TrEMBL record:
Presence of the UniProt keyword Translocase in the record: no
InterPro entries: Ada-like_dom_sf, Ada_DNA_repair_Zn-bd, Homeodomain-like_sf, HTH_AraC, HTH_AraC-typ_CS, Me-P-triester_DNA_alkyl-Trfase
Residue intervals of the HTH araC/xylS-type domain: 79-177
Origin species: Paenibacillus plantarum
Keywords tagged on the record: Activator, DNA damage, DNA repair, DNA-binding, Metal-binding, Methyltransferase, Transcription, Transcription regulation, Transferase, Zinc
Statement: the UniProt record of this protein carries the keyword Ribonucleoprotein: no
Cofactor: Zn(2+)
Origin: domain of life: Bacteria
SMART domains named among the record's database cross-references: HTH_ARAC (SM00342)
Protein name: Helix-turn-helix domain-containing protein
Chain ranges passing through the membrane: none
Pfam assignment, any one: HTH_18
Length: 180
């Protein structure tokens, strides 16, 4: 493999998109040079000048960078984003991390998500985190600050403030409610 191809892969250089595709023998996947997926070992990389050649060599297109140019319908794309948020809500999630993961600009991701889901990605993340916090408040005796951290909100004061703003109750008051 030519050094310039490897350097383009290492740098996620979008200037090389369409010039070549790289496939990873251990995963069976091929990507654009700009793909933000984890850097493969150099010895596992094969270079193709056409996506058809990569597919003929039994590699499948990456679901992240979509080198085949096939985009999901917006509803399916947003469903994938929601599933990702629901699985990773306790991790640091931002519009930037979502746009990197789903290979889209922050503007396009935000606009599409809001149009399809009716809320912004941040609002959805907050909804998922608050639902998880409510469940923990009801089912455990964990301290409120620990629950905040467990659901992805390291700042206990911010967690308590957001919880109260969204539910009308502090986390402690919510926990003390007789019926949930």
């Amino acid at each position: 493999m030519q050094e310039r191809y490897w350097q383009a892969i290492v740098a996620n250089d979008a200037a090389y998109d369409g010039t070549f595709y790289y496939a990873v023998a251990t995963t069976g996947i091929f990507c654009r040079p700009s793909c933000k997926s984890r850097l493969p070992k150099r010895e596992h990389v094969r270079i193709f000048h056409h996506q058809q050649a990569a597919m003929e060599a039994s590699f499948r297109p990456c679901k992240r960078c979509r080198p085949d140019g096939i985009r999901l319908p917006d509803e399916a794309w947003v469903a994938e984003m929601k599933a990702h948020i629901e699985e990773h809500f306790a991790e640091p999630l931002s519009l930037a991390t979502l746009s990197d993961h789903f290979y889209a600009s922050t503007y396009h991701l935000q606009r599409t998500f809001k149009r399809v889901a009716g809320v912004t990605p941040l609002m959805y993340i907050q909804e998922v985190r608050l639902a998880a916090a409510k469940k923990l408040l009801i089912t455990t005796d964990m301290p409120v600050q620990v629950i905040g951290s467990q659901v992805g909100m390291a700042n206990a004061a911010h967690f308590a403030t957001l919880f109260q703003k969204k539910t009308g109750l502090t986390p402690t008051e919510f926990r003390q409610q007789p019926m949930h």
